[in-house]
Design brief:
Radius of gyration: 29 Å
InterPro entries: AB_hydrolase_fold
Protein name: Lipase (Class 3)
Low-confidence stretches: 210-214, 290-296, 557-561, 792-801
Helix content: 40-55%
Keywords: Membrane, Transmembrane, Transmembrane helix
Shape: elongated
Number of strands: 14
Largest sheet: 11 strands, mixed
Strand content: 5-15%
Length: about 800
């Protein structure tokens, strides 16, 4: 531990979690002012009455008070606010498919079968992502080309009667009107995929652009920009334009017929569309960064073929293909059969890819199993490393459901006489069966959970023995805490099971609908209620998303609520799917690293990175980068505080290759005891980070966790802090409801759960330990005086006082 001098000061750099926050809330001040940033990523400090940056409250240590500067990094503007960002919620299926890439199991070193399986899985993910984009284009074609242009605007149709017949008969009018929304959609998707966050400092941007593979084994080492993203983007755009042309020309199975030179032109355009789609599929299948990045392998030829100039030529030819298709369709027929066929073919191909992906994922997870077999069961990856398969299935079914959900209300608005493709009847059956199974599953889970909880409390079973230690002598707080502990533990332990149930019910509905469609069996009468319910579910899905986007333009708070989805999905860079919102981690982490390095230029400054919820992942990755880049004498002046973090129960289990358990142990060892984790048992979203296998024995809290040297093993019994917190290893278990109130300190009544960790007095103590100003193994500190006398008439079950 470094000795604090007279010029020592502590900079507490806070990073918020999902949904964003206000600058004042982040820095615990009545006013805040920007001190750095570009308006998108903002660094703020408390402000005085003249709106000048002011230091934070002094940090009390054992020896003397130390100057503290409180700063906050606001990144909520990257995921919420305004219509443009709100529309990103409509790309949620794309984002889920992209997240599935980061959920793949790790590839053991020097294991050729695992390496080949990893290549195959990544390739299948990129193919699935391309099919998902093509499915969206095909479903928009159903609405614009078939429902609107072909059926509603045909001469003599009783639909949109305000449009005269002469306009409907005008050459190329209906074809142009049908293709225009598709081209606009593709242009918007291409524009979204080009959006990227500008890093504030030029030297950081140049360093991030360097293609180097970190070998530190620290958290988030592989979170970097994929150099193949521009090529993937171009292939998606080319495939989308080709699919639009293919649908207008008759579909993938049969082209439109015509005589003479017109028939030859249609045949040529139809073949070119298929060739462009095939080349796009082949390109995304082969374009893998680990292979293409090696100069001695064949991937370099693919990169050369997909460099900037060939990509522009490819895109120009695709645009010419669409214009040619427009010229060949002077008048649309009464129906566009290619739309229905294309949707069904793409859906079958997606189902085949998902099944193949799931089958290949089984041996890949088994080969990676040796990397986590030594871990306790509660720390192992979800579903044995197979969790990416159900997530990918959900992405595909949500993508198909949203398109059908849009088509149904559009047909109702235009007129019931319009006919949807036959395949849509099976989509409604799919979602009807899935919705019914979801209701039954919800009822079963709720009934079982309620029965288990009632039986446990009726028999007096102790679910939260740790709470008895934290609330000894305060029975009212103990009763409230025990109830919250139970529900929080249930949500953490079974949240991934709910995702598996959702995937299962959707897959069951998909299998039933697919079998009926493939065998061309007319739908039995007993399926009619399910189809009607499916129409309701799909309509509710589409209307809810569209309404949320509309409200985001009128009410900023709605945009912030949509940010919950974006905050989780947008942490991951574009890898499997290029048409997703930009990754904010690629901007936040380098700018946090730069800010810390600026502060460390002052030899008397110590910096503590503090992250809440999703912010804990950002500061952990930033701390890992700092350990890689800083010299040894500067590494001793950085610390880390996480609060309400998912760095144990969620991220290592969902993303075992990116945030593995071993990387967290390495980070803890690199920080040498200066990583403190604040946790509450009542928090359903956050939990312990540094310890596991906790138990209460003889009035003491014991457990296993990270030691200061990075090793793992049994820890000394937890020490009680001056405000009632129990410190076990690096975890600070906070009493919730808080003890107190304490004189001169902000106090929050009731159960806080996942919010307001900074209100607990233990926050300051954790910051001081992370800054190296307090020794965690020091003798127990004297308790702070209470502003009111606590309840002492009752004792807890363990006999604490």
């Amino acid at each position: 531990m470094l000795i604090a001098g007279p010029d020592t000061r502590v900079v507490e750099l806070r990073v918020h979690g999902v949904q964003g926050t206000t600058p004042q809330t982040l820095v615990d001040a009545v006013a805040a002012v920007d001190v750095a940033g570009d308006g998108v990523g903002r660094i703020v400090r408390p402000a005085d009455r003249l709106r000048r940056p002011a230091p934070g409250p002094v940090l009390q240590t054992e020896g003397r008070p130390v100057t503290r500067v409180v700063e906050g990094y606001l990144w909520g503007g990257m995921t919420s606010g305004g219509v443009a960002k709100a529309t990103w919620a409509l790309l949620f299926p794309f984002s889920i498919a992209n997240v599935a890439h980061w959920m793949l199991p790790p590839v053991p070193e020097r294991n050729l079968p695992a390496h080949l399986l990893g290549l195959g899985l990544r390739s299948l993910l990129r193919v699935f992502a391309l099919l998902l984009t093509a499915l969206l284009v095909a479903q928009v074609s159903v609405v614009s080309l078939d429902l609107l242009a072909a059926q509603c605007l045909r001469p003599g149709a009783e639909c949109l009667t305000s449009i005269p017949t002469d306009v409907r008969l005008f050459p190329w009018f209906r074809t142009f009107l049908g293709l225009l929304p598709i081209v606009v959609l593709i242009s918007v998707m291409r524009r979204i995929s080009h959006v990227d966050w500008r890093i504030e400092r030029k030297e950081i941007a140049e360093a991030e652009d360097e293609e180097r593979q970190p070998a530190s084994g620290l958290p988030g080492a592989h979170v970097a920009t994929d150099p193949d993203t521009p090529a993937l983007r171009s292939l998606h755009v080319v495939a989308s334009l080709a699919v639009a042309s293919l649908i207008a020309l008759g579909g993938p199975l049969k082209q439109l017929t015509a005589t003479g030179s017109m028939g030859v032109a249609i045949t040529v355009a139809w073949i070119v569309s298929l060739v462009f789609i095939g080349l796009s599929v082949l390109g995304v299948f082969l374009l893998d960064d680990p292979t293409g990045g090696a100069p001695h392998r064949g991937g370099r030829w693919l990169r050369a073929a997909l460099s900037r100039r060939p990509r522009r030529v490819f895109l120009a030819l695709s645009a010419v293909l669409v214009l040619t298709t427009l010229g060949l369709q002077e008048q649309l027929p009464a129906r566009v059969p290619g739309a229905d066929v294309t949707v069904q073919v793409i859906a079958l191909l997606m189902a085949f890819v998902v099944v193949l992906f799931g089958l290949l994922l089984v041996p890949a997870a088994l080969l990676a199993r040796r990397t986590w077999t030594s871990l306790p069961r509660e720390l192992r990856p979800w579903a044995g490393g197979w969790f990416a398969a159900p997530v990918l299935a959900i992405a595909g079914l949500l993508g198909g459901g949203f398109g059908a959900g849009v088509a149904l209300p559009v047909r109702k608005a235009l007129g019931e006489q319009l006919k949807l493709p036959e395949g849509y009847a099976y989509i409604t059956l799919l979602w009807g069966v899935a919705g019914a199974l979801a209701l039954l599953s919800t009822f079963a889970v709720a009934s079982f959970t309620g029965a288990v909880r009632w039986r446990a409390f009726r028999k007096g079973k102790e679910w939260a023995r740790e709470a008895s230690l934290l609330h000894s002598g305060r029975m009212r707080d103990l009763r409230a805490a025990t109830r919250a502990w139970w529900w929080a533990r249930w949500e953490r332990n079974h949240g991934h099971h709910m995702i598996m149930i959702i995937a299962s019910v959707l897959v069951v509905g998909a299998v039933l609908a697919t079998l009926l469609r493939v065998q061309n069996v007319s739908r039995p009468s007993w399926t009619e209620p399910f189809s009607a319910f499916g129409v309701f579910v799909l309509g509710l899905l589409a209307v809810s998303l569209l309404r949320a986007v509309y409200l985001a333009a009128r009410q900023p708070e709605s945009g912030r609520r949509l940010g919950i989805i974006a905050d989780i999905a947008q942490f991951w860079p574009r890898e499997a799917h290029p048409i997703v919102p930009p990754c904010y981690a690629l901007k936040v982490v380098p700018e946090l690293v730069s800010r810390v390095q600026d502060h460390l230029r002052d030899p008397g400054t110590r910096v503590v990175l503090c992250g809440h919820s999703q912010g804990s992942l950002l500061v952990a990755v930033a701390a890992a980068r700092l350990l890689e880049e800083l010299p040894a004498h500067d590494r001793e002046r950085i610390g880390l505080v996480t609060a309400g973090s998912q760095l144990q129960w969620a991220y290592p289990r969902a993303f075992p290759a990116v945030v593995p358990h071993a990387s967290l142990a390495r980070l803890a060892g690199g920080l040498d005891g200066r990583w403190r984790a604040l946790c509450r048992g009542t928090d359903p979203l956050g939990g312990a980070v540094m310890t596991w296998r906790r138990q209460v024995f003889d009035g003491m809290l014991l457990g296993v966790g990270y030691r200061e040297d990075g090793s793992e093993g049994a820890l000394a019994p937890a020490l009680r802090g001056p405000t009632g917190a129990l410190v076990l290893g690096g975890d600070h278990w906070l009493p919730d409801p808080q003890r107190g109130p304490f004189p001169g300190r902000r106090w929050r009544s009731g159960v806080s759960a996942h919010s307001d960790y900074t209100s607990d007095p233990e926050w300051d103590r954790a910051v001081a330990i992370a800054a190296g100003l307090l020794d965690v193994d020091a003798p127990e500190s004297p308790p702070l005086p209470f502003a009111r006398k606590p309840e002492t008439r009752s004792r807890d079950a363990l006999g604490g006082s």
